[in-house]
Amino acid sequence: MDPNTNLQDDGHDDLPDLPGDDAFAAADLGPPLGDDDALAKMGSRTPIWGWAVLLVLILGVGGVGVVWWQQNEAYNARWMAYQDAQENASDREDFLQRIRGMLPDTKYEDVKIRILQKMAEYEDAESVPVIIDQLDSEVPTVVTAAARALAAIGSPEADPAKPRLLAVLPNAPTGARAAVVWALAVLGESAAADAIIEEFSSGRLQGQPGFDPRVISDVLGPERLSSNDLLNHEETSVRTLTAAALAETGSPDVIDPLSRMTDFELGREEPDENVLRSIASGLGRAGDPRAGGPLFRILENQPRMRTAVLESLRKTVGAPGIAALLAGAEDIEIRRELVAMIGDSHDPRAADTLAEYVSDEDEEIKQSAAFGLAELGDARAVPALIELAEGLDLTVAREALSKLQRLGAENAADGLVAMLENEERYLARRANILRALGTTGATHVGAVIERRLDGDDVASAAAALADLDYDPAYDRLLRMIPRGDTDFSQPSVANEVPFMNRTAAVRALGRYGRPDAAEALMEIIEDPLDDRRLRQDAGLALGAIATPEVLAQVLEKLRDPELDEVAKRYYVGTLWQNPSRDVAADLMELVASADTPPDVKRAASLAVGYAADPSLDQRVAQMLANEGTQREAAFMIVLGGSPENARALLEALAGNPELQQVLLFSIRDDESNAFNLITGGNFESGEVWRRLRVAHILNRGEGDNRHGYVWNHLIQRLKSGWDGHDGMTPRQIRERIWNALRGDDAELRTLAAQVLASMDERGLLMAARDQGGPGSDEARDKLRELNNPEAAQ
User: Which one of 101, 499, 514, 594 counts the least CB within 10 Å of its CB?
Assistant: First the structure.
């Protein structure tokens, strides 16, 4: 076996190829003798003393040959112990323990370096003592590898190495000095500040693995980084990283040095855009109004950089920093850009700034401020939103009404009622006005909305009454759904208006979420003389209001041989919209039965998935291994499975193109909404987080076996929300994810940061980064990945 072969599944990198061995190369015997020379040699005799000399030479060469042979054999076998550790170690810890024992004994440079690299890769704190000993090596590459391993392990685990690193530093080999200095920087050793500045200024420090300007800013601080020698360094790379390191401090202390650096850079014959971009980032992150001066000097002197600077700000500066820059902005285009950035950030810290601009004279600024403030759930946006809703631009007006609907502010009610009563002017917006009224929570508008049940806007009015949970209208809606003596089984023009009214009422009853409508909805589902479309809607509405008791009734009906198959198909939609762990086990039996129709199996599997019951994980795994239930098990796992089952699903998908296609088309089928449910209950039960973990595992995949459509679809659902009973708005979803990012669960914080990144919620990530505390490191790491996608590969 190749000594460079890795342990299976241990994540070891491949070893370098073994060097070629010249031991068996043909010897140089010189030019061949000619015929005359050969004949002349024949017959000549060797004296006795010549034979003696020859014997001594033979014995000497033989001894040297033995030593050479022994050394050559040892050299060729130098990887054997490492190979044995790879092949026979029981786990990673056993492997590390074995190579810790090898490091002091091996005399081969390449083996030492490889061992040190592995210790660095696994950040093995227990290896620190043996790594420290390698700092005394006379081989520069070994010292370099040892220093880099200590840097990778980091503080506080590698702190015991500081004294030896400082002792080695003065006489460190030229090739190893930068690595030694970087290790001291990572360990926060301020005594090495001069050496850190020297190596940083030379540009050698930036080439170290894992180089991060924040390390430089942490160990040196703004004061040491503020020398003119660094701020005005001739090397562009040094100036860029100096600005980046200053930006990492994120404090007002950097305003003065970055302001000076701005003047130095703009004074050059050819100012560098990367340097100016780093300066702009640092000025913005400081969140200090004084940043406006130098930033706008950049914009004024380098107009072609405006887009680049603003984009850099968008990617790196939180809302308070943008607000500080906005305070000094005079150019109207820049003001518009900055207000839009703040609004898009969804950062609650910017609410007061947005509130200042909701009455701005500029319509574009007013709109951005009002929309952004509404997305924060701030009722101060209401007057501006009402004004925009009344405007001539129908697209903007409808968007303003949509924002009001999501905002759900009671102080919007009177303005919306006034618009509703202006029939002639706002006819095209009436449905949007009604939906916005329904979320205000103002009970006095209920009667106003209820009157609209008699007109063309019955669907919007009924939904609004449900959102308002307006009790007086509930009984009226119940009375609207029976078909009476009319046969609706065949759609007709004469029945169209009654059908539309009944449909609006049925859907509204689902939004109310009250289970006492169950009996009336079941009657529609089982009525062969009713419209098939309405029977399907009734099944979905029943699902929205279903309690465990109602779901148990539905299960009995699905098992009832006397109930016709058409009715059973309409009951199918009931199963998954209000999932319950109380009936999940019974639904598993329904899926497992060979007698269950495919569409019922599918709906039951969705319900089990949304129930996200960990106690069923083992049974789901068994179903995944069974060809007859593999498809349904895949649905269960995608909606609420365990990480272990997600990895098993990934393996199953790799060898099953048919299963891949079924899963892909099912998830992308937005018409059925089967994979779109996002409710408060989903979050409370943990289903959303289980779903996200599974999607993340499938997204990462293994090699080419990746299924990113699962993750991408779920992210779009989180960005859009769910408009139904117990549905979540995008703002409510962002709040839940934000709370997870700031919570105590480290694994959940990492996942939440990834979700916010995929949702393009940079503003919230920057808020977490800047505020410190739980989630700040995860947010910062994710922002670095977003801004440096190549480095994240």
Answer: 594
Instruction: State pLDDT tens for residues 286-312.
Output: 756 578 788 878 887 887 888 877 887
**Distance from C-alpha of 149 to C-alpha of 143, rounded to nearest angstrom:** 10
Residue type, 27: A
CB-count exposure of residue 612 (10 Å: 0-12, 13-18, 19+) = buried
Place of tokens 């480095």: 791
Question: What's the CATH fold of domain 89-207?
Answer: 1.25.40
**Residue 632 identity (one-letter amino acid):** E
β-partners of residue 702 are 705
User: How far is Cα 689 from Cα 65, in angstroms, rounded to an integer?
Assistant: 68
Q: Is the peptide bond before 491 cis (omega within 30 degrees of 0)?
A: no
Residue 592's Cβ-count burial label (10 Å; 0-12, 13-18, 19+) is middle
Q: Is the separation of the CB atoms in 722 and 676 below 8 Å?
A: yes
Domain coordinates of the chain in residue numbers?
89-207, 470-572
Residue 12: which pLDDT band, with cuts at 50, 70 and 90? very low
The average pLDDT across 100-125 equals 92
β partners of residue 705: 702
Tokens standing for residue 696: 């993340």
User: Using one digit for the tens of pLDDT, what is the confidence trace for 400-428?
Assistant: 999 999 999 999 999 999 999 998 899 99
pTM: 0.71
CA-only gyration radius of the chain, Å:
36
Q: What angle do CA 123, 129, 132 make, to 5 degrees?
A: 90
Torsion of Cα atoms, 777 then 782 then 787 then 789, to 10°: 130
Least confident segment among 40-44, 184-188, 205-209, 686-690: 40-44
CA-to-CA distance for 159 and 186, rounded, in angstroms?
10
In the block, which residue shows the tokens 């924040």? 214
- Whether residue 135 contacts residue 171, with contact meaning beta carbons closer than 8 Å, is answered with no
Amino acid at 587: L
Confidence of residue 62 (pLDDT cuts 50, 70, 90): low
Burial 165-201 (b: 16+ CB within 10 A, else e): beebbeebbeebbbbbbbbbbbbebeebeebbbebbb
**d(Cα 583, Cα 424) in Å, to the nearest integer?**
52
pLDDT, tens only, 91-107: 999 999 999 999 998 98
Nearest to 431 by CA among 457, 450, 409: 457
Q: Check residue 302 and give its pLDDT.
A: 86
- Under a CB-based contact definition with an 8 Å cutoff, are residues 306 and 294 in contact? no
Rounded Cα gap, residues 262 and 259, in angstroms: 5
- pLDDT tens profile 461-494: 999 999 999 999 999 999 999 999 999 999 899 9
Contact 280, 298 (CB under 8 A): yes
Q: Judge contact between 200 and 241, C-beta under 8 A.
A: yes
Q: Give the CA dihedral 340, 345, 346, 351, nearest 10 degrees.
A: -60
Assess contact for 77 and 107: CB atoms under 8 A: no
In angstroms, the Cα distances linking 548 to 77, 98, 229, 520, 522 are 69, 57, 73, 18, 15
Q: What one-character-per-residue DSSP string does 506-530 give?
A: HHHHHHHT-GGGHHHHHHHHT-TTS
| pLDDT one-digit tens code per residue, 741-789 | 999 999 999 999 999 999 999 999 999 998 999 999 999 889 878 876 6
Are the CB atoms for 391 and 397 separated by under 8 Å?
A: yes
- Tokens at residue 699, please? 């997204």
In the chain, what percentage of residues exceed pLDDT 70? 89
Evaluate if residue 46 carries a pLDDT over 70. no
CA distance readout (Å), 379 to 338, 389, 403? 22, 15, 11
Question: What are residue 679's DSSP bridge partners?
Answer: 727
Q: Which of 702, 727, 726 is nearest to 717 (CA)?
A: 727
What does the alpha-carbon distance between residue 753 and residue 776 come to, in Å, rounded to a whole number?
Answer: 10
